[in-house]
Amino acid sequence: MTAEGVLIDVATGGRRQGLQGEDLLPTAVFSPDGRYLAAADTQGRLTLWDAGGQHRIAVLAAADSTVERPALAFSADGSLLAASRADGSVRVWETASPRLEGATLPTGDGPVLAIGFTPGAAELYIATSHLPLRTEQLTPERAAGEVCARAGAGRPGPSGADICPTCPTGGRVEGGRRPRP
């Protein structure tokens, strides 16, 4: 794919216009399973497309909401997409639910240079200018924790602690924060 959104078939050399309505595209990545294409334009917008670049599935980040040239990575099965952000964090979306807000993973140590998923997508590798490699766990327990935190950490329980019924750690949220699994 060119910066203008022209898709090139490497086997035949054939060219066709795709990704209509996008600005110049300095960063794009195809999912390994061949279903998706994620593209970031020069205005900072991140868009998820079908792999042929003909159908826009969702705008994941609006203009000016991400770095101009973000690091992008799909999981091996195409079910997750990760993108770096201007604040040095990484946002992860489920491609089956792209209109839902992605989970944010703070890195806290400068711009993200590269990201990549482990083969089973249980972990995300993140490289920054200050740390050559860090690993973030992408477990169901962590996802449940994010949901509970977004919901305000549950409701007061009989002992004064908060309870989040979907929390895999038994539902207890001590002092407004759930213990990490």
List the helices and strands and how they pair.
Layout: E1 6-8, E2 15-17, E3 27-30, E4 36-40, E5 46-50, E6 56-61, E7 72-74, E8 80-84, E9 90-94, E10 103-105, E11 112-117, E12 123-128, E13 134-137, H1 140-150, E14 155-156, E15 162-163, E16 172-173
Antiparallel strand pairs: 1-2, 3-4, 4-5, 5-6, 7-8, 8-9, 9-10, 11-12, 12-13, 14-15, 15-16
Structure description:
The protein has 181 residues and is mainly beta. The chain has one helix at residues 140-150; strands at 6-8, 15-17, 27-30, 36-40, 46-50, 56-61, 72-74, 80-84, 90-94, 103-105, 112-117, 123-128, 134-137, 155-156, 162-163, 172-173. A hairpin with a 5-residue loop joins strand 12 (123-128) and strand 13 (134-137). It is globular, with a radius of gyration of 19 Å. It starts with 5 loop residues before the first strand and ends in an 8-residue tail after the last strand.
What fraction, in percent, of the residue positions are helical? under 10%
Major sheet = 4 strands, antiparallel
Count of DSSP E strands? 16
Number of helices: 1
Distance between the termini: 42 Å
Q: Kindly estimate the percentage of residues that lie in beta strands according to DSSP.
A: 35-45%
Compute the average pLDDT: 77
Low-confidence stretches: 155-161, 172-181
How do the strands of the widest beta sheet line up side by side? 3-4-5-6
Rg from Cα: 19 Å
Outline, from the CA principal axes? Answer: globular
